[in-house]
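Researcher: Here's a chain I'd like modeled. Treat it as a single chain, no partners, no ligands.
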Amino acid sequence: MKSKSLQLGLCVLLIAISSNISGQGHYIGGSFNTNDYFIPSASGWVFSLYYSFSEMNYYNDSGNKTDVIQINDNPPFSVNLGQNVKTHSIIPMISYFGKSKILNAKWGVLALPMLNNPNANIALDFYSGQTTVGSTKINLNSFGLGDFYLQPVWLTWEKNKLSTTFSYGIWVPIGKYEVNSTENVGLGYWSHNFRVMGRYKPKDKISLTSGLTYEINSKQEGTDFKEASHLTVDYGASYNFTMGHEVGLYGFGTWQTGDDKGEKAVLDKDQIYGLGIYGSYWLKPGKLGVLSRFTNNFGTRNRFGGASFQVGINYLLF
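Model: Modeled as a single isolated chain. Structure tokens:
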């Protein structure tokens, strides 16, 4: 019975945040499938392994794709990229869902390391730090241990057809970061993610979700740069089949809420929107499952945007 309830409650926990696919900060919208923001009804461990690919291009303040990043107005200074950013990521993940309750809520924790190339936000950080137009190119073929995500606070309250969840997660900057290095795979600063999500189930097999994530960033190691905070709205809908297989749609919007600080600060505020689709299938119901998903960005300004694709496998242990 526990196996079945966890199977239905947990589609496949895919965290696209780990691939940092689109731009500034660590978190990006559409990182979870619609039901994966919420603690499932049964307790247990989930061990996951994912592969993620993304292809990104830079968009200016007018929303046009360009190779030029405008850094300052006075004195005028810009950087010529001359390339797009393709990222390959290998993402292991461990999550645990507790048996008892905390504050009358189901609880869980999540740990997510990763291996990746320099991604789009690392590339933007690198080019923003250049002092001579086109002086150096980032090495997009370097590969290593990236920044680590830990979500130690994760609570879900349920009442009838409504569910509410709150989580706090922190990005730990363990990925290689050196000022002006062409081979960085980390960002060199901490990020704090605060998230509130709601879910309404008009029928047992249908879920509608929406919520907010607010990210606060620390000062970057070895520089005077501090990335601005960002607010993200996530929403989606899903349908569960009898054996726990699931299909769904999701969307998001992310906006910069303050100003970057320091010499590497990009001149204008950024924003990005995205839509995606996913599907999961249980090879062994309640035990072993696979998933694929596709995300495409639009309305991108002053950051990288494009498309990403992920596939993953999950193993459930009780």
